[in-house]
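Checked the freezer inventory, then went back to the computational side. Two predictions to log before the end of the day. The first one is the construct we discussed on Monday; recording sequence and tokens without edits.
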Amino acid sequence: MKEIALGVLASLFFAVTFILNRVMELDGGSWLWSSSLRYFFMLPFLLIIVMYRKGMQALTQEVKKQPGAWLLWSFVGFVLFYAPLTFAAAYGPGWLVSGTWQFTIVAGVLLAPFFIITLGGKTIRQKIPLVSLLISSIILVGIVLIQMPSAKTISTENLMLGILPVIVAAFAYPLGNRRMMDVCDGRLDTFQRVLGMTIASLPAWIILAVIAVITVGLPSTSQVINSLLVGISSGVIATILFFIATDRVRGNQGKLAAVEATQSTEILFVIAGEMIILGIPLPEPLSLFGLTVIIIGMFLHSYYTMLMKKKQTPTPKTLIKSQGIS
């Protein structure tokens, strides 16, 4: 339950991304700056945190061991995640991008077979947790219901440009996150891992920034300020909270899926934020029903996680049996 609570809290800060990215696009800001500036602003905050915790030496040693893996999975987990999200913000409102992003709930569950664990000296390929997949699918149905009324007002081209890049991001984020957890194998804490991934992804962000300077010029003051807010709220606070939660349950695909499913609550925060900041109207009844379905799905995930935890907790009776005591 603590991990799910952390996931929901992270979703609150993640929601800032979708709202402010849309604000920047409406103000004429380029997605190239929206994406790269976030990680430029994240870097000093993370450096201060890790240096204060005296974790730089351990991080440097880990990166030197497998620089290729750090570059690859940081690119997947950060660049292929965030660049498509900011690009999609240019073609659709925050609710559309945030709603489509929830596909990551199902994507995270489907990625299970790509990971292998070692038990008793044997390598075992993980299986898709079917119950978690079913519950995640319920949440996904709720997300579809939310979007149906509003999707009718958007052109097919904008709909595709606002959806397809986000689907790429939906797979990239959990894939990069899980692969980096495997690479680190518990030797680094969350702050070190996020900093390492940020540094390893910098070459890509620098390239995007150079392209932005050439094509659209320097960013406006408002875009810089909004990107700073996104960097602190979503890039530092939300990412660290979410990574802490996933780190705690990384050995259990069902619990990991439950934590990743908490990202569905982002759309609730985004709708509320856009109503307040951008003045969008209250969702239609069908959308409100979709919100109810999402909340039910979240409760089911929480309940299932608690059941799994109880089953895995040894009772005095099972301990006696395991020790051969009659």
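The second is the one RB wanted added to the comparison set:
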Amino acid sequence: MKRYGMVIDLERCVGCHACTISCKMENNLPEGCFNTWVEEWDAGEYPKVARVKLPKLCNHCVDAPCVKACPVNATFAVEGGIVVVDEEKCIGCGACVAACPYDARYMNNDTKKVGKCTFCIQRAEVGLLPACVSTCISHARFFGDLNDPESEVSKMVADNKIKGLKDELKLDLSVTYIGLDKALKDGEPEERYRGGK
């Protein structure tokens, strides 16, 4: 059985935001709504200062709090483990937005429904990479079937030390990072950037 996943190599990310823009275009997102974004901040002290770049998106948790929070079962996982929102069922209550520990959901002000990353399911189902992966100029994102040991994403998991955001929550994430400990050694800043949020 397939399980889609993504590995992001933070050593490769240059913070160009091509992922953010291509995702908005592919998914026709309204102003102020983002399925993926890149948070940036300065870390360290002069003269050893570095710019940290941390791409974020829905983690497509196997044990997803948003799925449990939805009172009308509008949020659920489809084959491959991709967590989606059925807009026809969604009542726009925002319970799933509040339940997400990753701030990866938003209320679409145009539709009054919840939006989020879908791993570009419309592309994945026909064998294409998500828009954010296919446009990454530094090849920092890897996507595929985590259950296929021959897939590029599985090889990245096998060959590298990977970690997910807030791993202590034990939600069995489908998005993990290479170099996360180094990026977060001083912690995330209080003020985070997420476009219109």
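For RB: The radius of gyration is 16 Å. The chain has a mean pLDDT of 93. Let me know if you want it refolded.
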